[in-house]
Amino acid sequence: MNVYDSARMADVLAPLGYRPVEAPEGADMVILNTCHIREKASEKVFSELGRLRLEKNRQAADEAGRRMIIAVAGCVAQAEGEEIMARAPFVDMVFGPQTYHQLPEMVARASRAAGERVLNTDFPVESKFDFLPGESADAGVSAFLSVQEGCDKFCTFCVVPYTRGAEFSRPAAQILAEARRMAASGTREITLLGQNVNAYHGDGPAGGTWGLGRLIREVAAIDGVERIRYTTSHPRDMEDDLIAAHGEVPQLMPFVHLPVQSGSDRILAAMNRKHTADDYRRLIDRMRAARPDLALSSDFIVGFPGERDADFAETLRLVTDIGYAQAYSFKYSARPGTPAAGLDDAQVPEPVKNERLAALQQLLNAQQVAFNQACVGRVLPVLLDRSGKRPGQLMGRSPFMQSVPVTAPQRLAGTVVDVLISAAHANSLAGEPVLADGVTVSGPAAPAPPVDFSNPPAWEATA
Ligand code: SAH
Ligand code: SF4
């Protein structure tokens, strides 16, 4: 979502004469768009600010005495705005994630010769989406589109409800208009974004409320949209219509990120996730019934306060039962102001967290390797969405989000080609475009044959 927000900030700033550059050296303004989700992410902000201060000091001031504007945006700005203003006097602007449509006014204040400092962590009553300009002409072959923001779920470990605010869904007409503009400018894959994207319940164009399933069907009807994804979803909001869409909408990719966090019912309850591990297993069964080749990804937290060895064993068991194509796992980090951070006696010692993280990642990596291996010998539709590292190479993505570098002429950039997969690596696949009667170009991706999870997968041996 920060990638999307950054692109929209660039759109807002373009009429003021700003354009994105590759490096801070010589820039007129640097905006750090920050994440507060884990301690590590927010620590990075202060070390990065230290580096930017050196660059600012190196720059000669212009005739009006101005130098590079340094801004901190996003959720660290929202949560720690005052602290940043106090600790880093060289920072000119600090603004939260719901205020960036007000950038022109903030920049005007900060660029006065007097150098006014701006702190803006309001939750404005108006929605920023009503005030953003049309996005730049080249959103990219694969692009994000925010449809929902904020969260009302209050998992006990999480800062999102405090930094991003309450759940909000954009009206469907606004989203469809943005999707049409993106498709017209060459975007072929749209990833619908939200902190809780499947809690989407936006106003329909003709009254009533649309869920995510309905929205996906309508985006799929837009000319030029060949692939649709959505992230991040919550197990409790996986409605029947969305599950059905997986079996019915060919553009909807068979890869879903559905975080479970833990396999222990005791810990899930303490996290306030409001579902059990078996609820999640049954949900995955229903999703796989709708789309047999569905691949899954998840987030896991190890060392949540009070997590015992037996709880962690339940997490490993759940991972073994589901079989993930890919996953993210994190050590629990106490976030200021969240209920779990106050559970002082129950905090899990760091060495235990480290051990559990290593064990979980070993299992998840083995599953990822097995999943990638199972792709070898298959023909997968690959969307060539960016240029490759080497000349004559294009980078693409499989339906399952694996990176696939392909030797192909530049004219195929932005199209879907069938690729015969010849080798699998930890994070990518290798292969050659299929040359039947020339290279297969474009068209909605056909469903790929299912990976057989019932055949004893390699990871069971390692579990
Ligand atoms: N809305 C999504 C998650 C968004 S946060 C959901 O409900 O699943 C992204 C991920 O960061 C979470 O899934 C969780 O695994 C991780 N995370 C959030 N807070 C954390 C914390 N305090 N410590 C460690 N990991 C955390
Ligand atoms: Fe955070 Fe996701 Fe829970 Fe909301 S549902 S509180 S974003 S982890």
UniProtKB/TrEMBL annotation:
<dbReference type="InterPro" id="IPR002792">
    <property type="entry name" value="TRAM_dom"/>
</dbReference>
<dbReference type="InterPro" id="IPR005839">
    <property type="entry name" value="Methylthiotransferase"/>
</dbReference>
<protein>
    <recommendedName>
        <fullName>tRNA-2-methylthio-N(6)-dimethylallyladenosine synthase</fullName>
        <ecNumber>2.8.4.3</ecNumber>
    </recommendedName>
</protein>
<comment type="similarity">
    <text>Belongs to the methylthiotransferase family. MiaB subfamily.</text>
</comment>
<dbReference type="InterPro" id="IPR006463">
    <property type="entry name" value="MiaB_methiolase"/>
</dbReference>
<feature type="binding site">
    <location>
        <position position="151"/>
    </location>
    <ligand>
        <name>[4Fe-4S] cluster</name>
    </ligand>
</feature>
<keyword id="KW-0819">tRNA processing</keyword>
<keyword id="KW-0004">4Fe-4S</keyword>
<dbReference type="InterPro" id="IPR013848">
    <property type="entry name" value="Methylthiotransferase_N"/>
</dbReference>
<keyword id="KW-0408">Iron</keyword>
<dbReference type="InterPro" id="IPR058240">
    <property type="entry name" value="rSAM_sf"/>
</dbReference>
<feature type="domain" description="MTTase N-terminal">
    <location>
        <begin position="1"/>
        <end position="112"/>
    </location>
</feature>
<keyword id="KW-0808">Transferase</keyword>
<keyword id="KW-0963">Cytoplasm</keyword>
<dbReference type="InterPro" id="IPR020612">
    <property type="entry name" value="Methylthiotransferase_CS"/>
</dbReference>
<dbReference type="Pfam" id="PF04055">
    <property type="entry name" value="Radical_SAM"/>
</dbReference>
<feature type="domain" description="Radical SAM core">
    <location>
        <begin position="137"/>
        <end position="370"/>
    </location>
</feature>
<dbReference type="Pfam" id="PF00919">
    <property type="entry name" value="UPF0004"/>
</dbReference>
<feature type="binding site">
    <location>
        <position position="158"/>
    </location>
    <ligand>
        <name>[4Fe-4S] cluster</name>
    </ligand>
</feature>
<comment type="function">
    <text>Catalyzes the methylthiolation of N6-(dimethylallyl)adenosine (i(6)A), leading to the formation of 2-methylthio-N6-(dimethylallyl)adenosine (ms(2)i(6)A) at position 37 in tRNAs that read codons beginning with uridine.</text>
</comment>
<keyword id="KW-0949">S-adenosyl-L-methionine</keyword>
<dbReference type="InterPro" id="IPR006638">
    <property type="entry name" value="Elp3/MiaA/NifB-like_rSAM"/>
</dbReference>
<feature type="binding site">
    <location>
        <position position="155"/>
    </location>
    <ligand>
        <name>[4Fe-4S] cluster</name>
    </ligand>
</feature>
<dbReference type="Pfam" id="PF01938">
    <property type="entry name" value="TRAM"/>
</dbReference>
<keyword id="KW-0411">Iron-sulfur</keyword>
<dbReference type="InterPro" id="IPR038135">
    <property type="entry name" value="Methylthiotransferase_N_sf"/>
</dbReference>
<comment type="subunit">
    <text>Monomer.</text>
</comment>
<keyword id="KW-0479">Metal-binding</keyword>
<dbReference type="InterPro" id="IPR007197">
    <property type="entry name" value="rSAM"/>
</dbReference>
<dbReference type="GO" id="GO:0035597">
    <property type="term" value="F:tRNA-2-methylthio-N(6)-dimethylallyladenosine(37) synthase activity"/>
</dbReference>
<feature type="domain" description="TRAM">
    <location>
        <begin position="373"/>
        <end position="435"/>
    </location>
</feature>
<dbReference type="InterPro" id="IPR023404">
    <property type="entry name" value="rSAM_horseshoe"/>
</dbReference>
